[in-house]
Amino acid sequence: xxxxxxxxxxxxxxxxxxxxxxxxxxxxxxxxxxxxxxxxxxxxxxxxxxxxxxxxxxxxxxxxxxxxxxxxxxxxxxxxxxxxxxxxxxxxxxxxxxxxxxxxxxxxxxxxxxxxxxxxxxxxxxxxxxxxxxxxxxxxxxxxxxxxxxxxxxxxxxxxxxxxxxxxxxxxxxxxxxxxxxxxxxxxxxxxxxxxxxxxxxxxxxxxxxxxxxxxxxxxxxxxxxxxxxxxxxxxxxxxxxxxxxxxxxxxxxxxxxxxxxxxxxxxxxxxxxxxxxxxxxxxxxxxxxxxxxxxxxxxxxx
Length: 303
Fold this sequence. Notes:
Elements: E1 7-11, H1 20-30, E2 37-41, H2 43-53, H3 57-68, H4 71-74, H5 78-90, H6 93-112, H7 119-127, E3 142-148, E4 154-157, H8 162-169, E5 179-181, E6 184-188, H9 198-202, E7 207-211, H10 226-246, E8 251-253, H11 268-302
Parallel strand pairs: 1-2, 1-7, 2-3, 7-8
Antiparallel strand pairs: 3-4, 3-6, 5-6
Helix pairs in contact: 1-3, 1-11, 5-6, 7-8
């Protein structure tokens, strides 16, 4: 039976900060908020697709945390990035020197190849989180957002192998390789759509809940190199884009995860807790706005 009123959930990127989505999902589920469509960008695509395949917040959290604490994940090159970030924070001469040398290795590899981590390793690790099925087979309809590298346009994936679609949506340039789907080479969807509200509206969502787990531009940190400044400028541009996209959502939940680095995957409990806290703060407002919009549509249908 066709639902007369559809609730959509838009999950943004943010790397490890996106683990906060799992906390939000737990609260929405416990409060009985039924979801009819989910769209995700970057890490939001991982969280959203896991839940769309198996709509049980506790199970999704356990599966994600088990993987992040596994020896398999610890062997990934993401731990190289983690160590570099930790050493920067300690900021002694020796650790800074080591950090600069490591950065040289990282960017040297990324300049010679299309990515720091190979496609084979990348897709293999993504695959551990998902059943080998098509996007169209998820229990809750799901959309993964990626960016077309050649044409600079948004690509919304709603069918085909879910593992490759998620890999495409999360393909951070320089770190993970572009993923070829059809004729397109696809990269991280956050470059064109930080929090995918529009794809949900275009597919019939009447009410959209958006989760923004990105780093706030108000977060203060040192900018000690030209690279730091370039990356910060990119963040500012993407944040401006995000603001205009989020304006179309009915409710925006912003977990307080600005202090987390995108590679802080070992701080999963903290990120998830922040998501729960943010969702609980918004839940009464969300319910009130959801009820009002449902009643408005019901009255229009009756008329």
